[in-house]
Amino acid sequence: GTMNVFDRNINFDALLKFSHISASTQEHLKKVYASFALCMFVAAAGAYVNVVTHLFQFSFLTGLGALGLMIWLTATPHSRETEQKRLGMLVGFAFLTGINLGPLLQMCISINPSIIPTAFLGTATIFACFSLSALYARRRSFLYLGGFLLSGLTLLLLSSVVNTFVGSTWLFTANLYLGLMIMCGFVLFDTQLIIEKAESGDKDYIW
């Protein structure tokens, strides 16, 4: 008889098995993504506080505060004793960064409120797809992208500076899509870099 191609049992657990990554590194990745999700929600809370309370006049101070926390975080070595303190610094940095995003979000809301959920869903989808691509790919297969991505980022910065004087719509659009491609590449590169650093013993999931 004819076999029904849809009459098959799909093992969804197999989709989440990464046999080429050690168990300790997989646990490390869970902590990395958990801290990333925490920062995202805290930053969203900070942006909401800014939009509701209109703390625009403190944007300079909150920017300095975020910069100070970032420097303090990078200067504090990772250890079991400093883990909670460094996580608190990261949360504080995310909250102040969210507050600084408030004016930009307020502008988006005034133009079209649907921009924010659309951007969030689009970003989350792209991040998830490229992260999974890096996880399923052969180890170190995307690490060669580092030099190209940094060169592209430098080119993007220079063209943005030039465009502030030229005011070209075409150059602005090109920078927009080039920036999107570069950031997608960084997701691939950074994910595999995190794996390799964890495999070599670096278990710092906060920074």
From TrEMBL:
Molecular-function GO terms, alphabetical: enzyme binding
GO CC aspect terms: mitochondrial membrane
Compartments where located: Membrane
Taxonomic placement: Eukaryota, Metazoa, Chordata, Craniata, Vertebrata
Protein's name according to its UniProt entry: BI1 inhibitor
Transmembrane stretches, start-end: 32-49, 55-75, 87-109, 115-135, 142-162, 168-189
Gene: Tmbim6
Record bears the keyword Transmembrane: yes
An annotated GO BP: negative regulation of RNA splicing
Domain of life of the native organism: Eukaryota
Keyword annotations: Membrane, Transmembrane, Transmembrane helix
One Pfam family named in its UniProt record: Bax1-I
Family, per entry: Belongs to the BI1 family.
InterPro entries: Bax_inhibitor_1-related
Membrane topology: Multi-pass membrane protein
